[in-house]
Amino acid sequence: MLSVLRIVAALIFLEHGTQKLFGFPPRASGMGPETFSLLWFAAVIEVVGGVLLLLGLFTRPVAFLLAGEMAFAYFIGHAPRNLFPVLNGGDAAILYCFVFLYMSAAGGGVWSLDHARERKSLGVGQNVIAS
C-alpha cells in the first residue's frame, strides 16, 4: 500500500507542477508563473519531484524536499489568509506535507526503483554459481 500511496500522491502532485509550468491541465488564469519566480521554482520542484516519486527513485530525500516545499507553501501562501486550513485553501498543502514526510521515513515501497536498486546491490534474487 505504501507504493500505491506514493504513486497516487506523485501523479496528483505532478499535475500541480505541470499546470503551473506547462499550462496542462489548462489554468483558469491562462498564464503560468514568470520564469525564475518563486512560483516557477515551486513548479519545477513539483514536476521533477513528482516524476522521481512516481518512479520511486531517491524517494527519501525527494519526499523530504517536497514536504519542506509544502510546509513553506502553506506558511507563505495559505496561513496569512486565515487561521483555518479549510478556509485558507491550505488543507491539500498540509496533507501533502505529512504524506511526503511519512515517505521520507518509510521509503518508496516494494514497487519502486529504490527497492529494485537495493535488491540488486544486495544480490537478492541473483543466481549464485558455486565452483
From TrEMBL:
<dbReference type="InterPro" id="IPR032808">
    <property type="entry name" value="DoxX"/>
</dbReference>
<comment type="similarity">
    <text>Belongs to the DoxX family.</text>
</comment>
<protein>
    <submittedName>
        <fullName>DoxX family protein</fullName>
    </submittedName>
</protein>
<keyword id="KW-1133">Transmembrane helix</keyword>
<feature type="transmembrane region" description="Helical">
    <location>
        <begin position="39"/>
        <end position="58"/>
    </location>
</feature>
<keyword id="KW-0812">Transmembrane</keyword>
<dbReference type="Pfam" id="PF07681">
    <property type="entry name" value="DoxX"/>
</dbReference>
<keyword id="KW-1003">Cell membrane</keyword>
<feature type="transmembrane region" description="Helical">
    <location>
        <begin position="93"/>
        <end position="113"/>
    </location>
</feature>
<dbReference type="InterPro" id="IPR051907">
    <property type="entry name" value="DoxX-like_oxidoreductase"/>
</dbReference>
<keyword id="KW-0472">Membrane</keyword>
